Amino acid sequence: MRAPWSSRVPLAVLLLLQAAGCTDGHKPVIIVHGILDGPKQFETLSMFIKKVHPGTKVQTVSLYNNMESLKPLWRQVEDFRKAIEDIMNKSPEGVHLLCFSQGGLICRAVLSTSPNHNVHTFISLSSPLAGQYGDTDYLKKVFPDHAKKMVYIFCYNKMGQKISICDYWNDPHHRADYLRGNTFLPLINGEESHKFMKDWRENFLRIKKMVLIGGPDDGVITPWQSSHYGFYNASEDVVEMRNQEFYKRDTFGLRTLDARGDVSVCVQSGVEHTHWHSNITVFTNCIEKWLI
Fold first, then answer.
1. pTM over 0.85
2. Considering only CA atoms, which of 292, 277, 290 is closest in space to residue 48?
3. How far is the C-alpha of 135 from the C-alpha of 34, rounded, in Å?
4. Lesser CB count within 10 Å: N end or C end of the chain?
C-alpha cells in the first residue's frame, strides 16, 4: 500500500504549495472601517470570521480612526492603499477586502488605483457607493447648522472637499455643481472623464467578485439603495444600478463585472447602520460564503 500523498512530498514542497495558496486554507481578510469609528468596532466581525474559518488571518487596518476619518478621502486612499498593499504582498494567494460604510468608497478607490492588487472578493458593507444625500445623525455631527438642501454650497468647493463626507455628497438637484466641484466620487465612478479612466477600469476588474450589502432600515445611507449603486434622480426617485449612466456606459467596469456574473447583491431588512458588522444574520446570509 502506498503512503499518503502528503507523506511522499518533501516538506519544502508542501510549504511552497501553501505559500502559493494551493492548500485548503482561507484567504486573509482585510477590514476597512467607516466614518467616525475604528478597529475596535470590528472585533465582533473578526470573531465571526475566525469562528467559522479557524486560522483565517483577519486584519482591520488602523488608520484614520474616529474623528481622523473626516480627513479628505484621497489622502486616506493613499495611506490605506499602502497598508493594504503591505498585507497583499505577504499574501500571494490573494485576499478578501471587507469594507464598511465610508470604508467601501476608500476600498473602491484603492482597487481602481492599484494596478497589481490581488483582491479576490470585494465585500461592500452598507457603503454609499453612488453617493449620499440625506439628513442623518452623521450629517448633523459634521454640519450641525446645515439642512441637506444647503450642504452642496459648502461641499462643492476646495474647503468642503477637505472633509470626507463632502467627497461623496451627491446632491441630485445640483448635478452640474456635483460634477464640477466634487473631486472624488465622480472620478472613481467615471461620471467625469479623466486620463486615468481606462487604467482604473482595468485595475478594478482584477477582482473576481463584488458583494453589495445593504437594506431599507439602515437609517444612514440615503438612499439606502446607494449601497447597491442605486441613487436619486432630480425628482428624488431612486434609479436602480442597471439604469445608472455609469453602469450603462460601463465607465469603471460595473456592467462588465455584472455580465460576468460576479456582482452579488444582498438585501437585509431590520438592520440599522451601526449594527451591520455585529449582526450574525448579516454575516451568515451575506458574508460568510464568500470568504473562501
1. yes
2. 277
3. 18
4. N
